[in-house]
Write a structure and sequence with these properties.
By secondary structure, the protein is an alpha/beta fold. It has 14 helices and twelve strands. The strands form three sheets. The chain has a seven-stranded mixed sheet, with helices on both faces. The chain has a three-stranded antiparallel sheet with strand order 9-10-12. It has a two-stranded parallel sheet with strand order 1-11.
């Protein structure tokens, strides 16, 4: 059976060039980047080279790049590192759980939190952020691209609103990194989190942009690593991997690869929408090139995920961080879908290595799987077509 992976927003495979770049730092060049001998200095050069690449990617200074374990740590660091009891925090109801659960935690510790809901198309209205601003507002955190719908948020406008209010601005860019043109100065943020494994890099490593002068308290303390902003021996192979992954991502934005992925996504989407009783969640909103989230009337989403997997197609019902959860997507419900509609929605997210043959394979099996599941449901049997 030919298998097609359409769950890139959950994770991606290493590109061959990323694997090759990392390989020496597990075996031959295994040194600790904090050591002053030859092996340590080889590791330090590798980390410094990767930092330079991340600075090119973020469009910031080398000293403003902090390596960490991934997007969750970056989001937690921004929130716990800036907020204190009595502060006010603004975020949105469609954020990743790394932000939402951290918001719950700081609220328990005495901060006030406002969750701004999106429009029905999944876009946050910047004026709702402006209206939520208070004198005590310390931090605004809004994602660049939603992990479930792919909808892009107006972060530049939100950044200007935060700046006018004298608040710090954090962007969770885990799903947008490598898919859209990137510039933290243009975004107007003080903090920005990314994760390697969402962009064909290794799991367990990420990076943060921390604007110079931002009074961020470290989440992890100990040694003087990362200019005392994140203690712990550097994951040299992982850092080399994220450096190579962002290099490849920048090339993809320049050489038309993402435009090709968008064309494949649009063809996949159009083919699925030819099935009666389907619609796109987030239709009409700007989205990242690889993602579509589709609602299937009279189908239970988890059953369709399993049915497609048995036919060789890997898709998701939403965030991979909630895989196996019986709760409907908080993102889709915030957009106005009821529980049944949210449970009947699937995310298709393409790798940048996706092919026309992949799309052909998916379009062969999805209509059959949907028809079969609808026929099995007694209450809907015979009501379609």
């Amino acid at each position: 059976m030919r298998r097609v992976y359409c769950d890139a927003n959950a994770t991606t495979p290493l590109l061959p060039e990323v694997m090759e770049a990392m390989r020496p730092y597990w075996m031959e060049d295994f040194g600790n980047a904090s050591s002053i001998h030859l092996q340590g200095q080889k590791a330090r050069r590798a980390v410094d080279n990767a930092r330079e690449m991340l600075a090119r990617f973020f469009r910031c200074r080398d000293a403003e790049v902090v390596f960490n374990s991934g997007g969750t740590e970056g989001d937690n660091t921004a929130i716990f590192g800036l907020l204190r009891p009595g502060d006010h925090f603004i975020t949105t109801s469609i954020e990743h759980s790394a932000v939402l659960r951290a918001a719950d935690r700081v609220r328990e510790r005495g901060a006030e939190v406002t969750f701004v809901a999106p429009r029905a198309n999944g876009v946050i209205d910047p004026e709702e952020i402006r209206r939520a601003i208070r004198p005590a507002t310390q931090l605004v955190s809004v994602m660049l691209a939603n992990n479930e719908t792919g909808v892009l948020q107006p972060v530049e406008e939100i950044g200007r609103i935060a700046a006018d209010a004298g608040a710090f601005f954090h962007i969770d860019a885990v799903q947008g990194a490598g898919k859209v043109a990137f510039d933290v100065r243009r975004f107007g943020c003080h903090l920005c989190s990314i994760s390697a494994h969402k962009m064909h890099g290794p799991k367990g490593v990420g990076a943060m942009y921390v604007r110079r002068g931002t009074p961020l308290e470290p989440l992890i303390v100990g040694g003087s690593h990362e200019r005392r902003q994140r203690a712990g021996t550097e994951n040299v192979p992982g850092i080399v991997g994220i450096g190579k992954a962002v290099e490849a991502a920048m090339e993809s934005l320049d050489d038309g690869a993402m435009e090709r992925v968008e064309q494949l996504r649009d063809r996949l989407e159009a083919g699925i929408l030819a099935i009666p009783g389907t619609s796109v969640n987030g239709a009409g909103a700007p989205r990242v090139a690889n993602t579509t989230n589709i609602h299937f009337d009279q189908v239970e989403g988890e059953a369709l995920v399993i049915a497609l997997d048995l036919k060789g197609v890997a898709v998701s019902g939403g965030s991979a961080c909630h895989s196996g959860s019986t709760e409907p997507s908080h993102v889709l419900m915030a957009m106005g879908l009821d529980k049944n509609a949210a449970r009947a929605s699937l995310r298709f997210s393409l790798l940048k290595t996706a092919t026309d043959e992949d799309v052909d394979s998916v379009l062969r099996v999805v209509p059959e799987a949907v028809e079969h599941l609808r026929a099995l449901a007694p209450e809907v049997a015979g009501t379609l077509g």
